Fold this protein.
Amino acid sequence: MKNVPQRTCIGCNSQKDKKDLIRIVKNKEGIISIDKTGKAQGRGAYICDNIECLEKAIKTKRLERTFEIKISEEIYDELRGVIIDK
């Protein structure tokens, strides 16, 4: 039986299978993007596929603390779009 990697959501702090979460990545240049493949180079953070977790992460500035960088509103809007589209 293959071991499924577990990751922690930055919104609700619960552990889930890696494939069930959305990965946000910061590359070496400091550019933050949504990693749809889960294989992009850089520092990653994971969030559940629901809007409540995203809003909680925004309110607590969890992404900004994780990546140690100011996150623009465009990134949050893009994340909202990805979550709502699913």
